[in-house]
Amino acid sequence: MPPIRPAVKSDLPMVLDLAHALAAYHGDTATVTRAALERDCFGPTPWVTLLVAEGATGLHGYAALCPRMQLQFGARGMDLHHLFVCDTARGRGIGRALVEAALDHAQSQGCSYVTVGTDTKNRRAQGFYRAAGFDQITPDPRFRRRLA
């Protein structure tokens, strides 16, 4: 199992490639640039937390987390905005390890929940999140996992 760690600036070219691969998987064309990733992950006001799965030949996957809030309840949360594992590394528990690291990160930030959305047709991802302890909360589908 490759180690999961916070991304550093030198990871951005590989993360960019992975983000483009995720977009292609969904039939989209990614327009994100390295400059935008650097701004949003390492700029003066970071918007995204990136966790990466590092292997011997580079990054095998990443998780991108964005803050959320339920102000009326005073509840902090995180959205697992992206989770991607490259084709050659799937089926080895890397996605699960990235999710666990994302949950740990959210808990360390005082969050009481993590949300994630999937494409309505992506039954595999929906099953994956259910198996990881997430509950479906909307029909589009969106999932949430409460943290202790």
TrEMBL record:
Q: Which residues form the N-acetyltransferase domain?
A: 2-148
Q: Which InterPro entries match?
A: Acyl_CoA_acyltransferase, Bact_Acetyltransf, GNAT_dom
Q: Which Pfam families match?
A: Acetyltransf_1
The protein's matches in SUPFAM superfamilies, at most eight in alphabetical order, are given as:
Acyl-CoA N-acyltransferases (Nat)
Q: Which UniProt keywords apply?
A: Acyltransferase, Transferase
Q: Which domain of life is it from?
A: Bacteria
The answer, when asked if ATP-binding is one of the entry's keywords, is: no
List the PROSITE patterns hit by this protein, alphabetically. Answer: GNAT
Against PANTHER family, the record matches this protein to: AMINOALKYLPHOSPHONATE N-ACETYLTRANSFERASE-RELATED-RELATED
State what protein this is by name.
GNAT family N-acetyltransferase
- Which species is this record about? Sulfitobacter faviae
